[in-house]
Amino acid sequence: MDQPKEKTPYSLNSKKVADATKSWLHKRGVTVEEIAELVMFLQQKYYPNLTMEECVHNVEQVLTKREVQNAVLTGIQLDILAEQGALIPELQDMISHDEGLYGVDEILAFSIVNVYGSIGFTNYGYVDKLKPGVLERLNDKSLGPINTFLDDIVGAIAASASSRIAHRKQAERELDNGGEFDEEDLN
Amino acid sequence: MDQPKEKTPYSLNSKKVADATKSWLHKRGVTVEEIAELVMFLQQKYYPNLTMEECVHNVEQVLTKREVQNAVLTGIQLDILAEQGALIPELQDMISHDEGLYGVDEILAFSIVNVYGSIGFTNYGYVDKLKPGVLERLNDKSLGPINTFLDDIVGAIAASASSRIAHRKQAERELDNGGEFDEEDLN
Amino acid sequence: MDQPKEKTPYSLNSKKVADATKSWLHKRGVTVEEIAELVMFLQQKYYPNLTMEECVHNVEQVLTKREVQNAVLTGIQLDILAEQGALIPELQDMISHDEGLYGVDEILAFSIVNVYGSIGFTNYGYVDKLKPGVLERLNDKSLGPINTFLDDIVGAIAASASSRIAHRKQAERELDNGGEFDEEDLN
Amino acid sequence: MDQPKEKTPYSLNSKKVADATKSWLHKRGVTVEEIAELVMFLQQKYYPNLTMEECVHNVEQVLTKREVQNAVLTGIQLDILAEQGALIPELQDMISHDEGLYGVDEILAFSIVNVYGSIGFTNYGYVDKLKPGVLERLNDKSLGPINTFLDDIVGAIAASASSRIAHRKQAERELDNGGEFDEEDLN
After folding, report:
1. How many CA atoms lie within 13 A of D29 on its CB side?
2. What's the gap between Cα A131 and its chain centre?
3. How much helix, strand and coil, in percent to the nearest 5, is found in chain C?
């Protein structure tokens, strides 16, 4: 990759990329509400008053981030191509069998978590091991679709939304106590 | 680390952390303008109309991010302790000699770059090798202060500000063309 | 940091760094056996015949890696300095209270896990949340010592040893089936 | 992904994956010698006696690492599918135009560099910006093939081989001085 020169005729359409991200998550059977439930699972013990509405909102905000969109689209693409048997044989084998030593799925997940800082790592690892809610279904190999990337991606989005909440709750606490806060850090 | 329980008596004061970050960069002899010059060095060929004012603004916004503040304070702290000879002998040797196989300085730098996504990696690596402007001075071992962490951190802040500019310039382009844009992605 | 010029008078003594790593883990009350127990906790369900001897061996091998040694020494150093109250006040507050938004402890942990590839991320996150065995004691804030970095580091070493085992078990399986294997990938 | 249960009928064939990696690099027009030339470009000033034979050997050893093979195959796969126009339209646009805000190519590159520790980050960023030797050809958009992933991957392999050399040269130096060295750290 290289940074875009300003006069190139091709032009990225960010809205299309954002819309495709939502649309493909939906086509692959994952709702924002299901991801929000993972967030609730992760954050309830820290913020007992946390509402599902807040969880949904935070997931939606995570999905506006370009790095997240890139990882979602790339991961879903590889899952789909594996379902179609369209990959290089050795890669096909590893992705369609969710090979434990493959690891590129974790790498994409990690690129999502990272956008809200390192505090999301442990939440990601935790839901990825426990596989609560939607993650159990995505990880069920008997169901047909290949979700080698998608389960890690969904867990990573939930972990990112959890980090976003942790940042914002801290800001609320400080503002309540008369503190100041810079808008930028809240995004 | 673990996420904060809501009723803990200790309370993080974000403004103090932000102020300490700016103050310590200043005490270690690095100005926002010098970091902005690195940004200009990195971005001028992509955006010929980029102004120093924009570069300064973007550096300042990067410095409002908590992950960046954490890395800056931790890195400067280790440099200072190495100057004082206050570290475990083996660590003292590695940090005071800027040992090539140490690598924790790059890890902290990487945690800064990451906040604005992977597109900043190459800018960071590039200025860290070329050492233009302020980085040449910070890396001059004959001058007294130990800046093993600081030079990597300053390069990483400049790379992050460059990524931030790339994201915003794209948004401007699309808005000029009648596109829509979600605020969140711009932070 | 910069790569070493060959004629520099200072000379890294790798054996000293390796010995200091073991010695400081010991001084901070963590035994190789306790870390090996975390590995057993993580890996037993995948390899029912796994022995404690193998777990101990794999932890010891992880500890020979330079990146691991760098992270261990740096993290323990920051814990010790926080105990002594010797840090910049804002950093002192965050590290001594294991502030949830600090995150540099996770970054160092991540640099350990990474050496054996991305497959260790989830194991790290899992033990860091569950805090089994030695991690419960390290995380007990009522006990006096500050282990803000050490608990993440110990979890990361266990996760890395788990990844190392996963790589080697695969090799054993393939060799048993008459396959070939390149030595390098086993390290 | 999840770790393999021991009795699964599918069985990863590591030799096939390793062979496919070499074979696909070759099919995409990249030789080990060209990557070795990048290593020489990066390391000559630190080790004036470094030979091309050593550079070739170190590149070959990097290519035996599973994480490297996974990233190479996945990246080349996405380049090929982009050439065939077989991707989701929004992803197709970003990969075929090497969109500056895409960044998954850097993420895969980073997963390669990481295997030999953080000291490779700057070497990767440096060659990725300067694009010496084979990287200039891979990055030439007028030539037909899409190498959005491949140029980053090749730069990352060269950076990793450079880190591997830095580790080994240090070991040689210490052994020459009568020091001891653990084999494991050399891999």
Report:
1. 13
2. 14
3. 70, 0, 30
Amino acid at C31: T
Q: Return the partners of chain B (3 or more C-beta pairs < 8 Å).
A: A, C, D
Provide ipTM, 2 decimals: 0.91
Searching chain C, which residue's CA lies closest to the CA of residue B3?
Answer: C100
Residue C24 is assigned to a structural domain of this protein:
no
Specify the number of domains making up chain C. Answer: 1
**pLDDT, tens digit, 9 for 90 and up, residues A21-45:** 999 999 999 999 999 999 999 999 9
Model confidence band, residue A12 (pLDDT cutoffs 50, 70, 90): confident
- Which of C16, C110, C121, C184 best tests the D interface by mutation, with the highest count of D CBs <10 A? C184
Q: Best interface-test mutation with D: which of A74, A88, A140 has the largest number of D CBs within 10 A?
A: A74
Q: Do D107 and B118 touch (CB under 8 A)?
A: yes
- Are D115 and D61 contacting, i.e. CB atoms less than 8 angstroms apart? no
Find, in chain A, the residue whose alpha carbon is nearest to that of D6: A100
Where does residue A26 rank: exposed (0-12), middle (13-18), buried (19+ CB within 10 A)?
A: exposed
Partner A contacted by B6 (CB < 8 A): yes
CA distance B179 to B62: 26
Q: Which residues of D touch A75 (CB under 8 A)?
A: none
Is the separation of the CB atoms in A114 and B114 below 8 Å? yes
Q: What is the CATH number of the domain that holds B75?
A: 1.10.3760.10
Q: Which residue has the tokens 């020459």?
A: D176
Helix (H, G, I), strand (E, B) or coil at A98: coil
In the predicted structure, residue A14 carries a pLDDT above the cut 50: yes
Judge whether D32 lies within some domain: yes
Q: What is the pLDDT of residues B45-82, one digit of tens each?
A: 999 999 999 999 999 999 999 999 999 999 999 999 99
User: Does residue C25 belong to any structural domain of this protein?
Assistant: no
Question: Which residues on chain C are in Cβ contact (under 8 Å) with A123?
Answer: 125, 129
C27 φ/ψ angles, rounded to the nearest 5 degrees: -60, -30
Residues of chain D contacting B123 with CB distance shorter than 8 Å: 125, 129
- Rounded Cα distance between B162 and B123, Å, is 8
Confidence of residue A10 (pLDDT cuts 50, 70, 90): confident
The answer to the question of residue C136 being in a domain is yes
Candidates C117, C125, C130; nearest CB to A123: C125
Instruction: Flag whether residue C91 sits within 8 Å of chain B, measured between CB atoms.
Output: yes
Neighboring chain A residues of B174 at a CB cutoff of 8 Å: 11-15
CA distance A120 to B102: 26
pLDDT above 90: percentage of residues in chain D: 77
Is the minimum CB–CB distance between B67 and chain C shorter than 8 Å?
A: yes
Q: Considering CB atoms only, which of A100, A125, A130 is closest to C124?
A: A125
CA distance D91 to C185: 33
C-alpha count within 13 angstroms, C-beta hemisphere, residue C60: 9
Which residue segment(s) compose the domain that D62 sits in? 17-186
